[in-house]
Amino acid sequence: MIIDLAEESSSSIYHLMTQTLIPRPVAWVLTEHVQENLNLAPFSYFTAVSSEPPLLMFSVGNKAPGEGKDTKVNIAHNPYFVVHIAPASLAEEVTESSKSLPATESELDHLQVTMAEFGDFPLQRVAECPIAFGCKLHALQDVPGAPQTMVFGEILQIFINEEVASYEKKLNSAGKVSSRLLVDALQVNPIARLGADQYATLGRILNIPRPK
Question: I need a surface site. Which of 67, 140, 152, 174 has the fewest CB within 10 A?
Fold first, then answer.
């Protein structure tokens, strides 16, 4: 089967892309409105960009032509935001938070989640998420010809629940013992986005050594 996208509508292309670019991690993004209420919304066009500086990126569309989604508008006003990796146990909450609400209404008023302090970061985090990235806006980049904006965030700090992490001791080339943080992906149990109304969880993990 070969599908020529030049002959497809934008909605059909969206359906095809979300059915085939799978699985996609979900960024559950917390931002602050100018009136200080908090917005929480999921985005599955999301990835890491670089480690020096430590950047991640997610893509945000518009509510309507010329009207940016609350997440983008909020970040343009307040450059600090939190990107959560949500576990499968919160799949329904993540989906619920995708509803379109007035900008002055917080999704947190409709969700069964708990907020927790995030060290000295300006915003709180969702306590039930085992991983959270405290980010500051690095750049907003409109996509030419598309109603999308790429949000690049510099990661300032990371919360990792100690229940999903441990340290691995290794002997380095100099004969000294070093330790490295290991995150147990199965313990994190992150949800991944598929197409339509489908999500996925992790199954079998493959350990394949890198080529030498």
Answer: 174
Which residues touch 75 (CB under 8 Å, ≥6 apart)?
A: 31, 81, 137, 140, 151
* Residue 200 · residue 194 · CB < 8 Å: yes
pTM above 0.85, yes or no: yes
Sequence length of the chain is 212
Q: Residue 191: which of 33, 42, 11 has the closest Cα?
A: 42
19 by DSSP, 3-state: which? helix
pLDDT for 76-120, tens place per residue?
999 999 999 999 999 999 999 999 888 888 999 999 999 999 999
CATH code for the part of the protein at 15-192? 2.30.110.10
Q: Which neighbouring-strand residues pair with 166?
A: 182
Number of H helices and E strands in the chain, helices first, is 4, 16
Domain boundaries, the chain: 15-192
Predicted pLDDT of residue 142: 94
In degrees, rounded to 5, the angle at the alpha carbon of residue 7 between the alpha carbons of residues 3 and 10 is: 95
